[in-house]
Every structure is written in C-alpha cells, then in structure tokens.
Amino acid sequence: MGEEGTEGTIHLLCLAASSGVPLFCRSSRGGAPARQQLPFSVIGSLNGVHMFGQNLEVQLSSSRTEDTTVVWKSFHDSITLIVLSSEEGTSELRLERLLQMVFGAMVLLVGLEELTNIRNVERLKKELRASYRLIDSFLGDSELIGDLTQCVDCVVPPEGSLLQEALSGFAEAAGTAFISLVVSGRVVAATESWWRLGMPEAVLLPWLVGSLPPQAARDYPVYLPHGSPTVPHRLLTLTLLPDLELCLLCGPQPPLSQLDAQLLERWWQPLLEPLRGCLPLGTRALPAGFPLHTDILGLLLLHLELKRCLFTVEPSRDKEPSPEHRRRLLRSFYTLVTATHFPPAQLVKNPPTIRESWVRSLSWKDPLDKGKVTHTNILAW
Amino acid sequence: MFQVGRASIPKPAAHSLEDLDSVQRVLLHSDLEPEWLDSVQKNGELFYLELSEDEEESLLPETPTVNHVRFSENEIIIEEDDYREGKKYEPKLKRFTKILKSKKLLPKRYNKKNSNASGPVSILKHQSNQKMGVIVQQRHKDVNIYVNPKKLTVTKAKEQLKLLEVLVGIIHQTKWSWRRTGKQGGGERLVVHGLLPGGSAMKSGQVLIGDVLVAVNDVEVTSENIERVLSCIPGPMQVKLTFENAYAMKKETTQPRQKKAQLNTSDLVKLLWGEEVEGIQQNILNTPHIVMYLTLQLDSETSKEEQEILYHYPVSEASQKLQSVRGIFLTLCDMLENVTGTQVTSSSLLLNRKQIHIAYWKETDKLLLIGLPAEEVPLPQLRNMIEDVAQTLKFMYGSLDSAFCQVENVPRLDHFFSLFFQRALQPTKLHSSASPSTQQYDASSAVLLDNLPGVRWLTLPQEIKLELDTALSDLEAADFAELSEDYYDMRRLYTILGSSLFYKGYLICSHLPKDDLIDIAVYCRHYCLLPLAAKQRIGQLVIWREVFPRHHLQPSADSNTEVFQEPEGRYFLLIVGLRHYMLCVLLEAGGCASRAIGNPGPDCIYVDQVKTTLHQLEGVDSRINERLASSPTPCLSCADWFLAGSHEKLDNLTTSPILSRLHGASRVATSPTCRRTLFSDYSLKTRKPSPSRSGGPDSGLEGEGVGLSPHTTESQGSHGSEETGALLKVTKKKSALPNPFHLGNLKKDLSEKELDIYNTVKLTSGPENTLFHYVALETVQGIFITPTHEEVAQLSGSIHPQLIKNFHQCCLSIRAVFQQTVAKEKKKALNGKDHSGSTNSVSSLNPVKEHGVLFECSPENWTDQRKAPPVMAYWVVGRLFLHPKLQELYVCFHDSVTEIAIEMAFKLFFGLTL
C-alpha cells in the first residue's frame, strides 16, 4: 500500500469564508498523514474562484481533472472547506461526505458559535488544533466506514441482551441516559437515548473515542453538531478493558470522580466474560462461529432507517486479497453504487426502484477468467 | 448557369481544359440541371435538402409539393416548384425573386399569390430570423392588425363569432358545409368566409378569403374559444393574427393524421434549415446552457471586456450568468493543471438551485467549454458530448481554431450549436415520429446511443449485401463513363476513398475505415440526417464540404497518399440522400487525382454518379422490405407480459410472444453444434463488418422466417415500409450474433420444458422468453446493434417504455464506469506494465469488467385499487471486454433468468470475435 507513488494525496483546506484566511490545512498521502502542503497561492486561488462565483450567485461545487477531484463547500457562510483528492476511485459523493464529517468534527470540538462568529482568527486556529487528530482519521485509511455511509458502525455482540441490561442499569446508577459501549470505534451496545442522537454526532462520538490515545478515563467537553451545537456537553469515557470503553454523555453532573471503581465493578464485573468476547469483534464485527459463506470476503450491511451499519472484511482472513485491500474495494464499491444508482432522493424525479447492484471487477491478475473475481453486493431495500 | 459550381474559383490559365470540361459536362446535363447549383456557397460548401412526398403514397388529390431550400451565405430561401407539371421558373426570374425576397422588398402578398397560382405551398412557417437573415415563404402567415374594442357598443351577441366580425372584420359562418372532414376535436376551424368592408382585416390587405385563422397573439383559436380570446383584449392595440392559408388547410383536413406527423418532422427539418422553431427554442432558452470558446492567453494590460471570449452561444439570460463566471473556468483550468499535472475535465456548480455541469476541452491555449444542466445531461455523457463536438468541428474545419476564429463561421456555428443543444436538451422533439412509443424509444435511446462511438448497424441477407457491395464498389472504382480518366483524357478531380450507405438511419454497407466512418457518422448525427432519412423520404439531399478526417491527416496514416503527393491532400465529403437512402462518399483531391484549388464546389458528375448508384438500389429497397417482413430475431419480450394477470388482457400482443416462442422453437431445432460451427467459421476481421452467413444454420433460419411471416403481417401490416429497419436488424442477429442471450434463455427453456418447444400450439404455459432489450457495441468496427424501432414498437406496453428508459440510463452509468476502466488501461499501456499493474487495483474497483443493476418496476397508472400494483424485477447488466478487442454488451432481462444462462450469453457474444 505504501507504493502508491505520487497519487493518492488528499489535501483538506479550511478557510474563513469572509477573510479568506486559512485556518488549517491537512494532507494525507496513501492513507497516512503527510506534511506536504499546497503552496499558498494555490490555496488562495482555490478559495478565490469559489468566492468569485458566490458573489455572482453561482456556487461552484466541484471540479475534476483526469485524476483529481476538488470539492468546495461552505458552511454557515463563515467556513469554507476545500478538499482536493487524487486518490484512486474517489468521487464527489465521498468528498462531500468527508467535508460534512470534517465540519461536524470542528463543531464537535470547538462549537458552532466560535466558527460562525470568528472574532480572533489566531485563537480559533489554536482551538482547532484539538480536532486535527479526528480530522486526520477521516483523511487516512480507517477501519470504519461511518464517515462514508453516514451510519454508525456497529458490531454484533455474542450476548447482546446481557450487555444491554447492564448498560441500562448502569445508566440509571450513573444518572445519564446517554451511554454506549464502544470497542475500537464501533458501538457494541447503547441505550435508547444514545441511539436517538442526531446524525453527525452519532458517528462522530464513537469515532472520536476510537481516535483518542488510550486513557483509563476521560472527561472531554463536546458540542453536539446536531443536538446542541452551541452548548457543550461532557463526554466521559471509562476503559473497561483495553480497547473497550464505556462512553457517557452528560451535563454538568455527575463528576467523573463519582463513577468510581466500585460502581464499575458492581455492574461490569459479572459481565467480564461477555465483555472479553467483545474484544475481537473490533475488526470482525460478527461473533465467531457466525455462519457465513466461505466465499464472502467482505460485508457491508446498512440499515438506512436506524442509520446503523455493519462493516467487516475479516471473514476468511487468510485468503487474497488483504483486508486493507478488501476494505478499499468495498468502500469504492459503495461510493460507486451510491453515487450512480442510489442518488439522493430529492434530485431524482420518479426514480425507478433500484434494489440491487453489483460490480464484477476483474482486477490485478490475469485479465481472463483465471484471476480472482471480486463480486460484491449491496442490498438496499 | 454554365459556370456554376466553379464560379467562385479563380481559374488559372492552365485549367482551361477543365473549363471546357465543365462546360461540356453541363451541356450534357443541361436537361436535368441540378437544383442545388445555386445553393453552393462561396467556400464551396453545400447543404441542400429537399423533401418530397412520394407520389404513390400521397393521398392528396393535389399536386405533390416540393420544397427547395437553399443555404447561401446568409440567407435561406425556400422555393416552391412543381415537378409534375414540369414547370420551371426561369432562372433569371428566380434570381430576381430571390434578391427581392432577400431584401425584404417582396410583399408577402406576392408569395401568397404565387403559391395560389402554382398550387404547392411551403410547409414551413414564416419566420424571419434576424441573425441569419432567413426569409422563408410561409404556410402560416402573421398579420398584425389594429383593434379597438372600445369602439364597440356592448351588444348581446346572438350570433356566434360576433366579436370576430365586429372587432377584426372577419366573417366566419358556422355552416356545416364548410367543414371538410367530419369532426375536429374541440371546435371548428375559423375559415375566413368573408371580410367586412372597412374592417381591420380588409384594411390590412393581407387576409384572404379562405384563410384559416389559427391563432391570435399566439393563442390557438377555434370557433369555440375565439370569442373568449377576443373578449380578453383590454383596449386598443395591435393584435397578431396567424393564418394558415387555404391550400394547406385543405391538405390538413383531408388527412389530418398524416399532416400531424409531418408537422412534427418538419420541426426537425426546420431546425436543419436553421430556422427557429417557436416554442421549442423558447423552452430551451430558459434552461441554462452555454458553449464558449475562450483563449487562455491574455495580455492583461489591454484587456477589454469579454476580450477572451472568442465565441459563445446562445445569447440568453440564463446563459449570461454562466458566461459571467468564465473567470472561474479559466482560473481552474490554469491552476489545477499546474497543481495536479493533469488537465481539468469538468466542473459542477449550482445556479438558481440547479446543478450545472461544465465540461472543458483544452487545446493548445484555447479552451472550449460546454455547460448543461445536470438534470438533463449527466456528467459522463457531457464529457462524451464535448469530445464529440470537438471531433466533429475538427472534422469539419480542420481545427477548433479555424472553426471558431473566423468571423464568417459564426452563423454556421450558431446553427451547429443550436442543433447541438436541441439534441441535448430536447431529444424528444427531434425524434418525433408517428407512433409515440417509438418516439419515446428514440428519445431514451438517443441519450445512450448518441454517445457510443459507433453507428447503428444492420445486416442484410447475403445476396442483398452482395448487391450493395457491388454497387458501392462500382462507384468507388470510378473507372467508367465520365468518371474514368480516359473519358476526358485528364486527371480525375477526386479519388473516391470509400463510401458508406445508410438506409433509414441504419448503416447497411460501409467501405470506409472505422475512423472515417465514425467521423462521418458523428457529422450525420449532428445534423440529424439519420433520423431525417428514417422518418421521411428525402426528395433530394446533397451535402458537400471539405472535411479533415483525422485518419488521413495524421502523418504516415496512409501510405498511398504519401507516395504520390505532398502532405496537403484535401478531402471532401459528399452526402447524397434519396428517399430513405443516404450515401456518404469520401473524396480525396491531390494524390492520384488532380489537386484541388480554391474552394471547389460539388462536382456534378460525382453527385450524379452517386445519385445513380442510389437509383440503382431502388429495386433492392423493396426486396429488403419484403425479405425483412419477418420476425425480430433476437426475440424480445415485453416487460408487461411478466406482470401477473396481464396475459389475458393483451390479446393483440400475443402475436409477439408467439413469435418469440415460435422462433425459440426453431432456434433450438437447429442443433447447438451447428451453431458452433457458425461461430468458428465466422470472422469479423474482414474489412467490412459484413456478416457472412454460412450455409448450415442459414437454411434453418430461413425456413423459420417464412413460417413466421403470417404472424408478423398481422401486427405490422400498417407499418409498411418502416419495417425495413427492423428486419435488417433481424438478419444481423441471425447471422452474426446468433442470439447469444436468447440462446441462454433457450437453454433454460430446453432444460425445463423440452416438449413445449416443439409443440408451439401450446403457448400459454411454460417458461417465458425473458430477454427484454440489448445493446452490443463493437468498437473495432465502430458499430453497435440494438433492437430496431419497429421491434420495440411491437412490444408496446405500459412498463416496457419505462423499462427501456431505465435500461438506457443504466447503460449510461455503467458505460461511464467502463470508460474509466478503458482510460486506465490506456494509461497503463502508456506507462509500461511494470509498476502500475499492482497499484491500480489497490484502492479502487478498476478495472471493472461487469456491472449489473437490478430494478423494480410497476405500472405507472395502476387502476385496480384493491390490489397492489404488480412489481417486476429485472436486471440491466453490462460487460466490458478488453481483450482481444474492446467490446461492450448491455443486456436487460427478467430477474428469473438463471445466472448460467446469462453467463452463456456473454460468453457467446464475446466468443464471436475471439
């Protein structure tokens, strides 16, 4: 994967819309953060064309060269995000969703107030540094797909009901309704209220937890981009087992100190075994022994109403191609199909119902039948 | 008259022989002086189109009308001529009237009288186009009169049409006897039976008795609504009355149906002639669209307003906005290229909440931009379109620069792009035809098919094919009569490089290399010549222009030309159309032939020879029709048959399923082994993609064709000659692609209900033929095949059109994916295979080989409320094959088809040329 050459670079630019001052620039190359940056003049003209259009009531939304796609998006007339991607198989859909996530992440950590009324650009720049880590995780190769599908990455725990019970009991004891159990960025179980969280934050919060360096416990102020973009909440995380964290979203109460070891022990000690069982689910998403056809190399299951998805490339691990490769294939397949065949509803008048779509790609080997054939399937009802 | 055709060429003394020659030639032909001679433009170009209504077919008691349309530098003149009476205008008079008309000196009355006297009437509406300076004689005429309702004392109108009489001064009597044919829906026509003395109408002097008032201020009126319309006139004002003249009216009333169809097509013709068609154009102007040709090199000091715009079209409010943001495109083009190292291809922007795609085409330091709304034209399609445009312009003018940077080209480009946008934004209008289902099919398929690098191809049975080939070869050889060098003992003017023959818009025979063929086809498609030939009989079409085929102008492309001459051999395209035939001939001057000097116009001899060739083929025409009056061979199913309960209702449609099943039966009767031998024998590597039918299966198929004909006539009798296309198609499928998909289905049939196949009487049960539609593209030969209009028209149903529309949309998106693959492959081939092979597939799905989409469809107007509408699921699958040749196949079939059958179908198709 490292041998991608000069291609596969993503540049993300964030500018203050009114002044055109760059707030930050992030780049990644071949899935890893890179230091290489665009020259200032390029940033200036990228922003310039967008502003020029806006003055004439023409919103420039995207532009493509043979291998690069540029997408502009301005938020609340105060922040302009520009992404320039030369990744293979990239599409506007992916980049637009990326920008939405990035802006969501900025709101999550800085708050909408700061972003819409920029008083002190330098201070905002400093504050935004806190979100770099999260933003970089969107740019790079992630094991999750929530940024693209806008659905919460979930796993299917072996003993879900037990965990669910413990969760609701603990929620009562802790005094907050918003609790979830997260294993490496994927939700294992969550309370009803947690599931009812609005769109960007439902994906962003587990993602944030997954992107932070491991800590035994955290008390993290967050704004909810959908729910309360201006009033911060507290995100408390408690590590039950390595990679397995308990997340609580609450107001001023309770203080972190109140959630002491005793409380945790009382609720979670009895469930140690099921919790241990959850650990390998991080990448596999499905419990061991789940019957799955041996030819299935990857799986993406979306529940569009509940906004949850299940994404795994772990089945039959040992086979070609590598999990990273499969993940990318599945991601680009999703992008391709969603962009071409399941377009946003409001754009299409009277669309034919498309139920299924598949691509047979004959890749990387003998162009004739002897090579491996990836056959992927998305079913959406 | 004698010097016409070469009139504008400054002739050096050395050419005196040639002069003599042309005199002689004209003398020879003086009895049939070509009508198009006057239309040749200064630069030698000719676009001459004349429609004819066939005499035999014409139900009219009147003399058939022939309309001549001439393109000259800045005007179009349509003249009327009456062939039957053998009457000809005296040339001088003709010129004189032409001049008069062009200067707008001739009063409209003159035209009117003229047409009354000689009988025929132009079918064209009167329009005067400022920009082009078009003057056309009208079938409709507009008369502006002054009305003053205030003068009226309000009276209770006891008589009908009181206002018409009092206000306008037109007397119309509602007598039944005035009606010429039974009922006209919604009111009687307003025939002018008399004029009120002193009334405005009489004062105008332009309203004649017998005229029909059709519109007031562009509001259509009949006897029913005229009073209401007139009563809406608030005060004294000028009112525009539109009249249809008496003759045309008569024609229309005697055969309203035919008239209607013709009116539709004449829209197309009008567009071709560069006229504005009201309504259509107006609609289009409201959608933002633009084409711009910009220069990237600006000297910033002297930059004036809009200096960088070398050409733009259209001038409308909606496109004005796009024009004003051209800075964006210029900047992006420059900057993104610097940053990414690749050229910018497209942008999207939002204008009034409407998404608009802009495609870029950069050449040296100029930039061609085309912008169209995303709703109408998806991005991949737009990219193909701009490529097409660039290619066509280069074919026509040599380079984009020479096309755009010459002032005299501007009106031509305006015409070019008005056609272009017409096709892009309102494909239905151009593809109007008699039956709505075919029209819809045309419109939906145009989206896809216009983008394919190929020509719609049909094959013929061997003997007809042979005849066509011989005829074309004879023409190309050019070694007889006046074409031979011996005849005049001098070098011939042009060498015929090749020719291709179209029938009703389908390619039936081609002796041109692929590149030339595609260039010509794109040109024809652009000028809508193919649908034109399909829909109406062309009286005479002569097109002549210098062209710049890329195939020949590339260095070292053609060894012949290199040996004999300097690189600047020149090429000319001659298209002659006659009835449904259209023969395109590519001529070369220089090389073996003498060199072209100046801007030679069309040469009579060549035009005549080509025309003769077409005349020769007249007989073939009817034989084709006859031969092809059999069933569609890759038998298609109508989607509606798959809906529960629809079988009983669709009695009239059962012929087709019967056909397909019958067909299926006999197909299976020819054993699979036999078919295999056909494949191995058959080779598409011949120069012409002519499918040679080998003996074995042929007989079997033939028998089947005969057996089926009674059924076919039942359903198709009325379609008459239009059937030809379908049938041509049929044979192609028979020989070249023996129903790959169908075979698959049959396999299924065979396995599941073997008995049923032989027992064709028992039709109501058993598995169905589940193939709905297909498109196969063969890029090597530049051809593609699909079911014909007629085949599709047979399958009329409520869902089927919907399905076909979906199919084409899907194909389009699938093809977009394939195109990426192909582009990648090309890049790979350029870069060398060592490193790129591994990186390509790492993060993307490329190269995509197959893409399938499953649809659900239910009838749109489902009346039964108790039951839920039945839902039908079907697949659209496209497959791309890169090796050994680039091929694409798109199939649409019912969900119930097994995967093995489909696999089989693809294997068979791609196996053909292996």
From TrEMBL, chain A:
<dbReference type="InterPro" id="IPR043971">
    <property type="entry name" value="FUZ/MON1/HPS1_longin_2"/>
</dbReference>
<dbReference type="InterPro" id="IPR026069">
    <property type="entry name" value="Fuzzy"/>
</dbReference>
<feature type="domain" description="FUZ/MON1/HPS1 first Longin">
    <location>
        <begin position="11"/>
        <end position="137"/>
    </location>
</feature>
<dbReference type="Pfam" id="PF19036">
    <property type="entry name" value="Fuz_longin_1"/>
</dbReference>
<keyword id="KW-0963">Cytoplasm</keyword>
<dbReference type="GO" id="GO:0005856">
    <property type="term" value="C:cytoskeleton"/>
</dbReference>
<feature type="domain" description="FUZ/MON1/HPS1 second Longin">
    <location>
        <begin position="175"/>
        <end position="269"/>
    </location>
</feature>
<feature type="domain" description="FUZ/MON1/HPS1 third Longin">
    <location>
        <begin position="296"/>
        <end position="349"/>
    </location>
</feature>
<dbReference type="Pfam" id="PF19038">
    <property type="entry name" value="Fuz_longin_3"/>
</dbReference>
<dbReference type="GO" id="GO:0016192">
    <property type="term" value="P:vesicle-mediated transport"/>
</dbReference>
<comment type="similarity">
    <text>Belongs to the fuzzy family.</text>
</comment>
<dbReference type="InterPro" id="IPR043970">
    <property type="entry name" value="FUZ/MON1/HPS1_longin_3"/>
</dbReference>
<dbReference type="Pfam" id="PF19037">
    <property type="entry name" value="Fuz_longin_2"/>
</dbReference>
<protein>
    <submittedName>
        <fullName>Fuzzy planar cell polarity protein</fullName>
    </submittedName>
</protein>
<dbReference type="InterPro" id="IPR043972">
    <property type="entry name" value="FUZ/MON1/HPS1_longin_1"/>
</dbReference>
<keyword id="KW-0206">Cytoskeleton</keyword>
From TrEMBL, chain B:
<dbReference type="GO" id="GO:0005929">
    <property type="term" value="C:cilium"/>
</dbReference>
<dbReference type="Pfam" id="PF19033">
    <property type="entry name" value="Intu_longin_3"/>
</dbReference>
<keyword id="KW-0217">Developmental protein</keyword>
<comment type="similarity">
    <text>Belongs to the inturned family.</text>
</comment>
<feature type="domain" description="PDZ">
    <location>
        <begin position="167"/>
        <end position="245"/>
    </location>
</feature>
<feature type="compositionally biased region" description="Polar residues">
    <location>
        <begin position="710"/>
        <end position="719"/>
    </location>
</feature>
<keyword id="KW-0963">Cytoplasm</keyword>
<dbReference type="GO" id="GO:0007399">
    <property type="term" value="P:nervous system development"/>
</dbReference>
<feature type="region of interest" description="Disordered">
    <location>
        <begin position="684"/>
        <end position="723"/>
    </location>
</feature>
<dbReference type="InterPro" id="IPR043987">
    <property type="entry name" value="CCZ1/INTU/HSP4_longin_1"/>
</dbReference>
<dbReference type="Pfam" id="PF19031">
    <property type="entry name" value="Intu_longin_1"/>
</dbReference>
<protein>
    <recommendedName>
        <fullName>Protein inturned</fullName>
    </recommendedName>
</protein>
<dbReference type="InterPro" id="IPR001478">
    <property type="entry name" value="PDZ"/>
</dbReference>
<dbReference type="Pfam" id="PF19032">
    <property type="entry name" value="Intu_longin_2"/>
</dbReference>
<dbReference type="InterPro" id="IPR039151">
    <property type="entry name" value="INTU"/>
</dbReference>
<dbReference type="GO" id="GO:0016192">
    <property type="term" value="P:vesicle-mediated transport"/>
</dbReference>
<dbReference type="GO" id="GO:0001736">
    <property type="term" value="P:establishment of planar polarity"/>
</dbReference>
<dbReference type="GO" id="GO:0005737">
    <property type="term" value="C:cytoplasm"/>
</dbReference>
<keyword id="KW-0970">Cilium biogenesis/degradation</keyword>
<feature type="compositionally biased region" description="Low complexity">
    <location>
        <begin position="691"/>
        <end position="700"/>
    </location>
</feature>
<dbReference type="InterPro" id="IPR043989">
    <property type="entry name" value="CCZ1/INTU/HSP4_longin_3"/>
</dbReference>
<dbReference type="InterPro" id="IPR036034">
    <property type="entry name" value="PDZ_sf"/>
</dbReference>
